[in-house]
Amino acid sequence: MEKTWQDYIKEDQLPEDYQLMAGAIGLENTIKLAHALPSVPIYLISPKKLFKVAKVEFIRDRYANASPARPFNHRRIALETGLSIREVYDILATRRDEVEQASLFNDA
């Protein structure tokens, strides 16, 4: 197969941000991203903020589906999600407060 000009791209020739990107997702994917989003400034927020909603849903689902055969373990969930144990307890407490408040208003 004949080489294209893109085959001559070297990671160390790229700007520092692109080098970091290539280290994380590979040079080929970095090139694809550069072509897909030309001249678009990209700011990536922290994964903790980006995936928080999914982690909250995961925790609530695991808690709701806990059983004696599959107990809910706060520490294990904290390790799986990268959240603190306190955050796991707070997420579950917030959910209980929401449910209690909803039932209070539904009875009226």
Describe the structure.
- The protein is mainly α and 108 residues long.
- It has helices spanning 16-25, 27-36, 47-50, 52-64, 74-81, 85-107.
- It folds into two domains: 5-36, no CATH class; 47-107.
- Helix 1 (16-25) crosses helix 2, helix 4 packs across helix 6 and helix 5 (74-81) packs across helix 6 (85-107).
- The protein is built from six helices and no strands.
- The model has no long low-confidence stretch (mean pLDDT 89).
- It is elongated and about 65 Å long.
- It starts with 15 loop residues before the first helix and ends with a helix.
- It is 63% helix and 0% strand.
Low-confidence stretches: none
3D shape: elongated
First and last CA, distance = 74 Å
Strand content: under 5%
Largest sheet: none
Order of helices and strands: HHHHHH
Itemize the secondary structure elements and their pairings.
Elements: H1 16-25, H2 27-36, H3 47-50, H4 52-64, H5 74-81, H6 85-107
Helix pairs in contact: 1-2, 4-6, 5-6
Brief summary:
Helix content is 63%, strand content 0%. It has 6 helices and no strands.
Which properties best describe this structure?
108 residues, mainly alpha, 2 domains, 6 helices, 63% helix, elongated
